[in-house]
Amino acid sequence: MVQNDPLARFGEVPLFTLTSTDMTDGASLAADQFGLGSGGRNMSPHLSWSGFPAGTKSFAVTMYDPDAPTGSGFWHWAVFNLPATCTSIPAGAGATGGRLLPKGALTLPNEGRQPAFVGAGPPEGTGTHRYQFIVHAVDVARLDIDPDSTPAVLGFNLHFHTLGRAVLEATGAFGGATARS
User: Fold this and answer.
1) Percent of the chain, pLDDT > 90?
2) Is-contact 97 17, C-beta < 8 A?
3) How many CB atoms lie within 10 A of CB 104?
4) Average pLDDT over the chain, rounded to whole?
5) Would you say the pTM of this structure is higher than 0.90?
6) Domains, in order of start, for the chain
7) Which of 47, 110, 119, 137 could form a disulfide with 42 if both were Cys (CB 3.0 to 4.6 A apart)?
């Protein structure tokens, strides 16, 4: 687990544990987690979390690239209203339609305006990017956010409702999955 919390500037909250069978904290993303244009499969990884604060009523999961050459980063995935009984999601849960997500969970449009997970695809010459998978423990059972909103709107709401968070940070560079072969 990442030792520092990339969202601490918004108010420190307790950290809990996030693991994955598909990636390792601090290591390169697996080939599947890269975008189609980078030789990957646009497949969201398996995620599992534990040790979240008492009083957690739901969860949100985000994947963000703070190193994208945009001035505002790049949101790859944003899911919210996962019930408090959900402590893991399988690989592929970020597919369009969210059929592998628990009932009631909503996926917001990513930067490509698709309500799904989009894999990494760093442009040539932009170095190694960090991909921050964050599970947010939320103090309400349901966030009332328009399903066509951006992940930034979710982030704004999470600022006021996060009890704790778990972070797993992987990396990726131009060439993605094809560079790993």
Assistant:
1) 88
2) no
3) 13
4) 93
5) yes
6) 8-176 (3.90.280.10)
7) 119
CA dihedral 131, 105, 71, 37 (to 10 degrees): 60
By the 8 A CB rule, do 87 and 116 touch?
A: no
Strand-pair category, 162-172 with 58-65: unpaired
The token pair that represents 8 in the structure block: 């601490």
R_g of the chain, CA atoms, integer Å: 15
For tokens 């500037």, name the residue: 9
The rounded distance, in Å, linking the Cα atoms of 82 and 169 is 21
Residue 124, Cβ density class (10 Å: 0-12 exposed, 13-18 middle, ≥19 buried): exposed
d(CA 95, CA 72): 24
For 42-84, what is each residue's pLDDT tens digit?
999 999 999 999 999 999 999 999 999 999 999 999 999 999 9
**CA–CA separation, 115 and 127 (whole Å):** 27
Per the listing, tokens 């980063």 go with 73
Please spell the DSSP secondary structure of 111-145, one letter per residue: TTS-SS---B-PPTTS-PEEEEEEEEEESSS----
Strands 129-138 and 106-107: unpaired
User: What are the structure tokens assigned to 73, written together?
Assistant: 């980063």
